[in-house]
Design goal:
homodimer, alpha/beta, 5-stranded mixed β-sheet, 17 helices, 10 strands, globular
Chain lengths: ~450, ~450
């Protein structure tokens, strides 16, 4: 057993009656999760770790090996679910300093996740004089951010390589058969990988979307899938009492107590992008119909010296979920000083991991005493199997939590609003009427 | 005129009566900001850009020059205000890729802002074979995170250099005369810089705390101070109608409408750490007495594909402040494709900056239509003078906003709670009673 929920620090916030009242909603949510529909219900992620396409997986590993051998840099083009999961996994498994560390695997840069020319230019400059491969990730091939970046990156590649060389260096992750990008890739003869129809972006890190870039950093992606499968089996075995369901129930309980912000926190800086991945997963799944817990994040203890004051004493609309790492990679003993200049003599010879652990417990006690419920999600260590467990744990918790809240956790209708406005303002054919409407609105302000 | 507030997109959320009712509170807040007390009222940041210690500034520039000349790496040890401002400024002025870019200035790593041994070990490994200087920043010299890191880093330095070499490589930013670190620095003969008594951590980026590391990346710190001074003069000239006050008033107005989360957003990825700096400034200043706006942040358009759904359609407890950059550094034209594979043919030849601007306007209109008030804080470009203006704009807005809210924006009593618990659990002498109390509590859970 690895990933687990610890809720003992939150007991004072859990009223038995309220918990019992949740029971019925949980049973319904469980049934909704397990129901299968004729239409695409975007639940492909659910069984995926149990019956992964092994040919696709082998192809991913071969492509990753080829990229590692032939390139100094991998540019990954994608946004949202086609960006956050892979980046989060690489920083979690390697380090937030991955790109700058000595290693025998390529630097990995993520572009196409903004419209900033300054930022894209920075990355293109980093590629100068280096061998480059590209992984472009888009279901439709028409996502504006990633399409623009792909145009720019292809432009650079065309200056650097011949067409037949480019064919060996561009890897496309997209729809199985439809879409602009698939057609283009086939015509150009690029290697393609599949984004399954029934897996939405924020649930896609265990498909080729995430696994190809993750494999390029040298990680064992089979172990990630194994971890996810283990978590699935545990959840099945534990039934309604499993930890992911319990997490889903408790966060809804806090939400009903008026806690509309959940802070996910970690004491490991390399967890930062996992926080971002989690924010998309929960925010996009639950933030709809005027409802939902707003997902925020912190890295402690840095942010105890930043948001700590607010968490301790500010408006009581918060609860926290601390993702706790049990074993560190390299422990260090705090050296003693000849003179106790810093007053920390009592820590000489103590392991840093012990200080980190006590800081966490001390903080938990302080924040709960301040009226902030605290949950812990614990994993053993930073490795692929734990990561797979953690990811699948959050998938299940998120789906069930959304159903308990009373929303469809698998759609994202609100994401279109800014896109439509942007298309109109940029003069995309077909948006003429909206353009006029928006311009009239702007001029009236 | 550079940094300015644009509130026209929020007009529909601003009721005239409510605004008028704020007037009196603003007048009081202004008076409180300008009042001087016999005791230390932590308002040293207010006049600082107008009468900076020029000798100290020259010494900072000399030290930065020395570090640039003699070192490949600068390790900055500090937490909270002794960390966020400098890192934010360097990423804003240079790039989020600063440490990996080709340059003739040192890599700059920030440690002592967590208890993670894995993370510290990563940075120590990055220093192997390189010439290293260290800037340790702590008012008291007893902050646990930075003291532990300083012990570790000194340990490394002692292996690498002789004592007389270390003297040339360690720069200490601390209290003028008191404190453990000052005493130690004097004994060892380290160069010291001053954290003024009347400037709190989150208001310290324009003192040696921020300016020394910022100067090491080659930035013109005098221009930063000039920008801050310009902003101060504009605020004085504009009196009660100035933009910083207006921002302070409007955010309190939204707060009273039930918007308890403010999202600071930028469309430039290199603004990310500025977001973090802003979160400390506002969160720590306002989050007290059970009150305050919870500060969150996003980088768009990445986070439109992550938190965008929630912002558009989730629980209506949000407002947004978009920090808008007017001019980009390097604009790029979107290349045309022979075949219009991505359906973006209408964007061929369009500047990326135009797309970014229209994405912003489109998003503003979408989010306000969804019930989320949006403000814009605009600056001209990424340079030192604009950065100084922006920083000082937020300083003033934060102080006045806190006074309007009815809190003391310059204290942070809640930060001590976790520290006391942590000391007790770690067995610090003098905390025996609390330790027993906490252990009893834990065992009863």
């Amino acid at each position: 057993m690895s990933v687990r929920l610890i809720d003992k620090y939150a007991h004072e916030f859990i009223e038995k009656d309220a918990l019992a009242a949740m029971e019925e909603r949980l049973i319904k949510a469980d049934a909704m999760l397990k129901a299968r529909s004729e239409e695409n219900d975007y639940k492909g992620w659910y069984d995926l770790p149990l019956n992964y396409d092994t040919e696709e997986l082998a192809a991913i590993e071969r492509a990753a090996e080829k990229i590692r051998t032939e390139s100094d840099v991998l540019i990954v083009i994608g946004i949202g679910g086609s960006y956050l999961g892979a980046r989060a996994a690489i920083e979690f498994l390697r380090s937030r300093y991955y790109n700058i560390q000595k290693k025998d695997t390529p630097e990995i840069y993520f572009v196409g996740n903004s419209f900033s020319g300054d930022d894209l230019d920075d990355v293109l400059a980093l590629c100068e004089g280096k061998e480059v491969s590209v992984n472009v990730i888009s279901k439709s091939g028409t996502t504006t951010e990633s399409s623009i970046a792909f145009r720019m990156v292809r432009h650079m590649m065309l200056k650097k390589y011949t067409n037949s060389e480019i064919k060996e260096r561009v890897f496309v992750t997209t729809d199985k058969e439809r879409g602009a990008l698939k057609a283009f890739a086939d015509r150009e003869g690029y290697n393609t990988f599949v984004i399954p129809d029934d897996v939405g972006g924020r649930f896609s890190v265990l498909t080729a979307v995430g696994l190809l870039p993750i494999a390029v950093c040298g990680a064992d992606v089979r172990a990630m899938l194994r971890g996810a499968a283990n978590m699935r089996r545990r959840i099945d075995a534990e039934g309604m009492k499993n930890d992911a369901y319990r997490y889903a129930v408790l966060r809804n309980l806090f939400y009903e107590q008026g806690k509309c912000v959940e802070i996910l926190g970690s004491y490991e800086p390399s967890f930062r992008m996992m926080n971002e991945w989690w924010k998309q997963l929960f925010g996009e799944s639950e933030g709809k119909d005027g409802k939902g817990i707003f997902p925020a994040s912190v890295i402690f203890s840095a942010d105890l010296h930043s948001l700590g004051q607010y968490i301790q004493d500010g408006k009581r609309v918060l609860f926290e979920t601390i993702v706790k790492q049990k074993q560190v990679r390299k422990d260090m003993f705090i050296p003693s000083n000849a003179v106790d200049i810093d007053g920390l003599g009592f820590l000489s010879g103590v392991k840093m991991s012990s200080v980190n652990d006590e800081a966490m417990i001390g903080t938990l006690l302080a924040h709960t005493a301040g009226g902030v419920p605290n949950l812990i999600v614990e994993y053993d260590k930073r490795d692929e199997e734990n990561l797979g467990e953690l990811i699948y744990f959050f998938f299940i918790a998120c789906a069930v939590s959304g159903y308990i809240l009373g929303v469809n956790p698998f759609d994202q209708p609100g994401v279109e609003a800014y896109k439509r406005n942007m298309y109109a303002l940029l003069g995309k054919p077909g948006y003429e009427e909206l353009k006029e409407e928006l311009l009239t609105k702007i001029h009236a302000l």
